[in-house]
Amino acid sequence: MNKNDKIKLTKEQREDMISEIKEYFYNERDEELGDLASSKILDFIIDKLSLEFYNQGVYDSYQYMTRSIDDLLSIQKF
């Protein structure tokens, strides 16, 4: 994933995430956000932060696969 790749969400996923943002701000900060403000926050997260989450997922997968390969080698018969 390079910086020009953008996470693509379905309409339903986007609506669910916007709803989650609105609920978070209401419950944690006692602020009522509208759809536009919540949408802007979601866009910021996708544009500025998602690459870090993606890269962490890739690294975690790499570590898991490395451990799995080491486990596979342990069943060799001599």
From TrEMBL:
It comes from the Bacteria. InterPro entries: DUF2164 (IPR018680). This is DUF2164 domain-containing protein. It comes from Clostridium saccharobutylicum DSM 13864.
